[in-house]
Amino acid sequence: MTEISRTLILLRHAKSDWSSSVRDIERPLADRGRTQAPLAGRWLGRHAGPIDLAVISPAQRARETWELVSARLSPAPPTRFDDRVYAASAEHLLDVLHEVPDDARTVLVVGHNPGMEQLASMLAGENVTMRTSGIAEFHVKGSWAELGEASAALRAAGRFDGRHLR
Q: What is the rounded average pLDDT of the residues 57-74?
């Protein structure tokens, strides 16, 4: 039996705007975030290959990040907005990933810290920092339902600076 290779990409939303007194879930991107997100999209478009499913937090800043990122992807992948991704812990994000259909080979999640950083660190078995617009790309062995602590190999991590992840 041949093992199917899977890829998980975690993308922390781009820099948000704290200048107004809107509810957290309604906070939009800052100007810096509107610059960061397309750069992340360009890196994903060049390095990630086709994405089978994007799971996005319903928060405004995550939705805006995804809009700017997905504009750089061709074709734009099927997208699912999942309320459970907003302000989720690593364990809750893992629960969401356990439900991904096994025919999805590459999955991208756009979410928030501290959960994204905790999940990346848990999967890699080492400390992974997720700054705004940070990307962590993993090789996943086994099914999505088997994903757990130290069960994925970290292939790339950092924030895209216009040329490469740093």
A: 97
Question: Coil, strand or helix: which one is 4?
Answer: coil
- SS3 assignment, position 41: helix
Distance CA 35, CA 149 (A): 33
β-pairing, 6-12 vs 106-111, is parallel
- Cα–Cα distance between 105 and 127 in angstroms, integer? 25
Q: What is the DSSP letter of 130?
A: -
CA distance 2 to 16: 43
- Fill in the amino acid letter for 74: S
Collapsing DSSP to helix, strand or coil, 105 comes out as: coil
Closest CA to 9 of 38, 48, 35, 61: 48
Mean per-residue pLDDT, 108-137: 95
